[in-house]
Amino acid sequence: MRRALAGACLVALGLVVAPAGVRAQATASLLATTRIDNTAVTVGQLNNLDFGVVVPGTPSTVAPKTAAAGKFVVHGSKNAEVRITFALPAVLQTGAFTMPISFADDPVAGQMGCHRNQDQQKNCVGFSPSAALLIRIRNNPPPQNTYYVWIGGKVSPALGQAPGLYTGTVTLTAVYTGN
Q: Are the beta carbons of 153 and 104 closer than 8 angstroms?
């Protein structure tokens, strides 16, 4: 019995102290790291949407690729995804008088929004301002961590529209998505 026990111990010891070729083991480690970028997303207004002087009874359209289009710039963390939405007025107003304004796609002017990661309005990509827009901030260090958005629209003055300077507020909201 002692011999059997001694033999079993030698076999067990052989398994524990087996040559490296029989049982191989290797390990490696890495560091998990991240850096916090506390760059706030900011929006600036660079140009008002300007219809100029309009004639009563004659609709007037400003396309987003024209100099009269409204223009915003968005700054944020490099390469961050941002969700852009608009609060759009239904009317422009002067005193008690109102005039309808629309941001719907137009058969001639096309989509009333346009966007691009560079300040190149003629090369911007159309979108509908009534829908949310997902964009990615330009992957450059400040101040080139930008995105540009242009907006057009259409006013429809009534035949007997009262004279005056009609105004309304177009608000762009930009929020990080986390993507």
A: no
The mean per-residue pLDDT over the stretch 5-32 comes to 64
Which structure tokens are listed for 11?
């076999």
Q: Which residue type occupies 109?
A: A
Tokens of 163: 């004279």
Amino acid in position 125: V
Residue 74, classified by CB atoms within 10 Å of its CB into exposed (0-12), middle (13-18) or buried (19+), is buried
The backbone torsions φ and ψ at residue 46, rounded to the nearest 5 degrees and listed phi first, read -105, -25
Distance, first Cα to last Cα, the chain:
69
CA angle 18, 21, 24 (to 5 degrees): 85
Per-residue pLDDT reduced to its tens digit, 64-99: 999 999 999 999 999 999 999 999 999 999 999 999
